[in-house]
Amino acid sequence: MVRIVPAGPEQGGKIMPAVRRAEVSWDGDLVSGSGRVTAATSHAFDGLPVTWGSRTEEADGRTSPEELIAAAHASCYAMAFSSDLAKAGHAPEHLDVGATVTFDRVDGRWTVVSSELRVRGRVPGIDAEGFRRLAEGARDGCPVSRALQGNVRLSVDATLAA
pTM of the full predicted structure? Predict the structure, then answer.
């Protein structure tokens, strides 16, 4: 049996909330301006270029808030799904997770409209239906999904490798 205990800073027996920060330095107006985004807590990335064009046209080596949401959603989902699989007695050997976030105009306003998750996995001892059922549960249970829920269309396409 696998027991998963989340790690976290504790104070008086209580797990404290995790707080993470990012910072952006922006120059110019929306259309011709540009910025740089930095992971201020972890320093895992520093000064990633971001522009309006990278959101609505070609990325051209720059990132966008939507790409960062996709990265957050895919990594959060991978953690939630691996946890759910292990709790069900089927620890995964490997999961490949992707997220596609769509940014579009709704009623004349730019809006994040969907996040489509795709997961392919090697998981011993589980059938395709069990894999799909747990995949859908993780879609609804991962913290980033819960943050997006009610505002963004969420979906998951789950495939169990033979």
Answer: 0.88
- The topology under which CATH files domain 65-160 is GMP Synthetase; Chain A, domain 3 (3.30.300)
CB 156 within 8 Å of CB 117: yes
Q: Buried (b) or exposed (e) across 15-46, using 16+ Cβ within 10 A? A: eeeeeeeeeeeeeeeeeeeebbbbeeeeeeee
- Say if residue 1's pLDDT is above 50: no
The domain segmentation of the chain, as residue ranges, is 10-56, 65-160
Per-residue pLDDT tens digits for 83-120: 999 999 999 999 999 999 999 999 999 999 999 999 99
Assigned token pair, 55: 């959101």
